[in-house]
Here is the input.
Amino acid sequence: MQPPTAPDLPRRTLYEEILIVLSLSLLASAAYAIISLLSAPLKGGYVASANQTNVLARQLVAIAFSLAPVWLVVHLLRRSGEGVARPTRGRDTAIRADPTPCPRT
Here is the structure.
């Protein structure tokens, strides 16, 4: 009996899956470590600058890695063939165009 073979997936799909797994596990820690390393002061070095904080870099990294689970869901939906449905405009405008007020209870 032969072992089951892996499905033939495009190289791009495999790279995307590896990047998603890394972004959900280790990549965030590595990004924060790099920011921390770059923001550490150098021995004997003086730099004249107005602001040397790394708050913006940390916020951008936090936003990027908080979207990793969303990326995983979109990837799995796209891979299964279902895709991501976009909301229809007609339903949105019908709700907003309703002139009747909501009854109070």
In short: The CA atoms of residues 88 and 94 lie 11 Å apart. Residues 11-38+54-96 form one domain.
